[in-house]
Design a protein that fits this description.
Layout (H helix, E strand, L loop, with lengths): L1 H7 L6 H8 L3 H12 L5 H12 L1 H25 L2 H30 L4 H30 L2 H28 L3 H7 L15 H32 L3 H29 L2 H21 L10 H21 L9 H29 L3 H32 L9 H36 L1
Length: 438
């Protein structure tokens, strides 16, 4: 998880250098991010179904190798100065990396389903954010020291080879050891398929469309923020890298605590609303900052974005397994990743359009901030809708242990049904007695 998220962001802090290297516009640069996300509108869903059918460890091994191939093509494109090859490499890498995230999420939920799920999910996201943060610091520093852009991408390839080796080790360990819940659900469970979409209920769909909008405010922003910081606050590439590492570090440090709170106290819909509101407020704050050269007034906004992002990721990925059947968890994670990648495909292209077609510097960044604020506001409306639904349906997701709460609700419903049947039977007997006596 750490390594894959480190290499995933290799191009982000080097935006100006890559644009100069290939002589491309902002829109074309943002196409690298969009091409990472575009195939993942479909592929993680297919990958999730594959993982449910073939096994999670097999999926991790396949997708790690695919990501390594994509990174190799991307590194070759830097040496060959071939932007078309870079786009192909980024698309292939994205096809492997996002499906890898899906299968890793499924593996974590298999081992910790019903106990410490949010905590372990948050720890994994903490490692992911550490990888992203170090990438924003190390890559600009290495480039400043060497001036060699291709070196950064070949180091990413080397790190991806390490992930493939780890995946092989995990595959053999997975053949020997299986989580208890997988042993219990393997014998009688039907295999996952596309027809299972009909069994995905209202809370699941609300969560994934909330992800669609909120991740634009999180990941799309961090993917295009380097140029924003350089243009608005006149910072260097290295300084921009340090600034953009702030949300990642804040998220990495806070994620485990957020997960533990969720496991111990529940309140998932409430925390989802609070986290989404925090992300929205961070964008409003950063939109109102005056464009002062060498100013670091943006730091509080970046800290708030990281802290809210930590809460958000903990609650979303720790809640999805409780909204679907266990046997379709891979499909559920895959569909969620597919939908949010739809947003991550469109988001950078919208931002690129603003950057290249609006001539006034101040207006283009106001439009960009307005776009992020709108997306987060739509996400907040959906989060509020989930909170309302959970309140009128017994507070299942707000409970400490949704599995036990679900069992209690089912038992209460069964008792009420039995009581009603007995009451109806008694009423029928009384009616017959009355008619007979008459």
């Amino acid at each position: 998880i750490f390594a894959m998220h480190f290499v995933q962001e290799t191009h982000v802090p080097m935006q100006k250098e890559i644009q100069n290297h290939f002589n491309i516009s902002t829109t074309k640069f943002n196409m690298l991010t969009s091409l990472y996300s575009l195939p993942n509108i479909i592929l993680p869903l297919i990958g999730g179904i594959m993982a449910d059918k073939l096994g999670l460890h097999v999926g991790i091994l396949i997708f790690s190798c695919l990501a390594c191939v994509g990174l190799s093509l991307l590194a070759i494109s830097i040496n060959a100065n071939d932007f078309m090859l870079a786009m192909i490499g980024k698309a292939v890498f994205g096809a492997g990396a996002e499906s890898l995230v899906v299968t890793e999420s499924g593996l974590i939920s298999s081992w910790f389903f019903g106990k410490d799920l949010a905590f372990t999910t948050s720890v994994s996201f903490g490692f992911a954010r550490c990888g992203m943060a170090l990438n924003g610091i190390i890559n600009p520093f290495l480039y400043e020291q060497t001036g060699n852009l291709s070196l950064l991408f070949w180091l990413a390839v080397l790190l991806s080879i390490v992930t493939c080796f780890v995946s092989v080790v995990g595959y053999f360990l997975g053949k020997k050891h299986k989580p208890l819940i997988e042993q219990e659900n393997t014998e009688n469970a039907e295999p996952a398929s596309l027809k299972d979409f009909g069994s995905l209920g209202y809370p699941y769909w609300v969560i994934i469309f909330n992800c669609l909008f909120v991740h634009i405010g999180l990941l799309t922003f961090q993917g295009v923020a380097t140029k924003w910081l350089q243009d608005q606050f006149w910072v260097t590439t290295v300084e921009a890298g340090y600034l953009l590492s702030i949300p990642y570090w804040a998220s990495a440090m806070l994620s485990p605590f957020c997960g533990k709170i969720l496991d111990n106290y529940g309140k998932r819909p409430q925390i989802l609303c609070f986290a989404t509101l925090g992300i929205l407020m961070a964008h409003i704050y950063m939109a109102l900052i005056p464009n002062t050269p060498r100013s670091f007034a943006v730091v509080p906004g970046l800290v708030l974005l990281g802290m809210s992002g930590a809460m958000y990721c903990a609650v979303v990925w720790g809640t999805i397994p409780y909204t679907v059947e266990y046997r379709v968890k891979g499909t559920a994670f895959g569909l969620n990743t597919s939908v949010l990648n739809g947003g991550l495909t469109i988001g950078p292209l919208v931002i690129g359009f603003f950057m290249d077609n609006i001539k006034t510097e101040e207006l283009k960044y106001k439009m960009t901030s307005g776009f992020f604020i709108l997306c987060c506001f739509l996400g907040l409306i959906l989060a509020a809708g989930l909170l309302y639904w959970d309140n009128i349906n017994g507070g299942l997701l707000a409970s400490k242990n949704p599995i036990e709460t679900q069992k209690k609700l089912e038992e209460e419903a069964e008792k009420a049904k039995t009581k009603k049947e007995q009451s109806n039977k008694y009423l029928a007997q009384m009616t017959l007695t009355f008619i007979s006596s008459g």
